[in-house]
Amino acid sequence: MAVAIDPATKVKELSVNSQHGTAPAEFVLTDTSLYVKRPKDPKFPEILAPLRHVLWAETVDGTLEISVVVKKSKKKAALALVHISGKVEGKEEEAKSFADAVLEAAYRGVKKYKHILVLVNPIAGPGKSRQHLVKKIQPILKAARCTHEDIITTHYKHAWEIARELPLDKYDVIATVSGDGIIHEILNGFAEHTQPVRAMQTPLCPIPGGSANALSLNLLGLEEGFDISAATVNAVKGLPMNVDVCSVTQGDKRFFSFMTQAIGLMAELDLGTEHLRFMGDNRFVYGYLRGLLRHKACPVKVSIKAGQSDKQQMLEHLRAGEAAAAQRVVAARGAPAPVVVGEAADVTDPPSTDPGLPPLVHRYEPGAEGWLEFDRPLLYLFGGKGPLVARDLLQFPMSLPDDGYVDIVVQERLTRKEMLKAMDGAEVGKTYWMDSQHYFKAVAYRVEPHNRDSCLSVDGEGYPFEPFEVEVHKGLATLLSPYGVYNVKFSVPDIKKPK
Ligand SMILES: Nc1ncnc2c1ncn2[C@@H]1O[C@H](COP(=O)(O)OP(=O)(O)OP(=O)(O)O)[C@@H](O)[C@H]1O
């Protein structure tokens, strides 16, 4: 069925005669998309791409050339890179003006000619990162006229070492072809940088080469979160989005967490299945079922400095945050493109002074006011930023990127039957409404295990199972996002609170 374009949205049109031999080709630029009709093209006779999927447009020697990523088919969500070219004899001026308009619209609010550092973890997830680099990532960066340096990580914490020494004005983006562990390493490397706050502002963009790829899922959504091409396009076209980062302290050691802190079942199902990386994210389902059989409790004392704990109120907070983010994106996309390194002579360096890492201001004191306490065996405790922790688990549906809160789930013990039931609808956040699941938005919390029989996972990496404290730092790091907010919808009407 032919795509219908609303005439009111048309910005510019072009029709040329000599594309694919003698067949005509039609191009329409609208407020939000690029439409291309090439009836003789065997694979993509008709394309309607949102402007964020348009990578380049120009005329060269009488040829109009457009690069765009397009959904491979109606059934498959994955994006494919498509180069469209057509001779524009007799219409050179018109075609140039059309290409200029497309390029301007496609990069509104976004820098062109980015210089990107690509860190590739060859052992992440199913081990295909190198192939992704060559087959999908490099062609998209080339099409978008980005330059890049690629580093294959050679050992554990290699990304940490790179981030610690990173020259801050050199790269526009660090893209990581790996899972969430590499982002954890980079942020902790930044924390050890001579200018840690400036380093943390370097935009990061995950490209999903790992197992869970939770950050990529949160940024791009369930449909595109595992799509290497969609994530690469985000590295090119995404808008900087501030995100909160948590300090995690154990004694006098301090490290940083951008995503999750887990103890009990949720830590064990992650750290206890690392040898099963080849299974991709199925290893987490296996880990959950194994935990169900073991049916272990995790006795801990939890102290929480909560900002919100009413589930309805948190939902309103979420909707207000989403609406504010949507407005910010409209404003950013409406702005002219920022000054570009490759295009402009006058690029001013940001100030070299750095305020240093934020101090810890919410340390726990026994008996201090404003802290809630739990002291009982739990199934798990999970703190985190970002709604999805895996494709099948929308654990923090109320999470907003920079609201200054870490979301905390304290899950009471469940029977095996209840544990099985909790799997149903977990991918859409149904567990949020369970009475046994306590949900908080907190500025800080502390966990004291009563035994050593579990593990602590921070952003999916193993840490000593000892008392730890977590404190949030608002908007400390920067990620790239097409939407300015997590692209995960918590659908309330479908998932009503059980009466
Ligand atoms: N060449 C290498 N050899 C061994 N380990 C490496 C190498 N490069 C990186 N690493 C380590 O690989 C670990 C796993 O990385 P990462 O978490 O990104 O992938 P994953 O665990 O497969 O995915 P996810 O976090 O999405 O589940 C990190 O701890 C990192 O330090």
Structure overview:
With 499 residues, this protein is α+β, with helices and mostly antiparallel strands. It folds into three domains: 100 residues, Pleckstrin-homology domain (PH domain)/Phosphotyrosine-binding domain (PTB) (PH-domain like), CATH 2.30.29; 123 residues, Probable inorganic polyphosphate/atp-NAD kinase, domain 1 (Rossmann fold, 3-Layer(aba) Sandwich), CATH 3.40.50; 171 residues, Sandwich (Tumour Suppressor Smad4). Strands 12, 13, 14, 15, 16, 19, 20, 21, 22 and 23 form a ten-stranded antiparallel beta sheet that branches. Strands 1-2-3-4 form a four-stranded antiparallel beta sheet, covered by helices on one side. The chain has a four-stranded parallel beta sheet with strand order 9-8-10-11, sandwiched between helices. Strand 6 and strand 7 form a beta hairpin. Helix 2 crosses helix 7, helix 3 packs parallel to helix 4 and helix 8 packs across helix 9. The longest helix has 24 residues. The radius of gyration is 24 Å and the shape is elongated. About 2% of the residues have low confidence. The site of adenosine-5'-triphosphate (ATP) has 23 residues, from helix 4. The site of adenosine-5'-triphosphate has 23 residues, from helix 4.
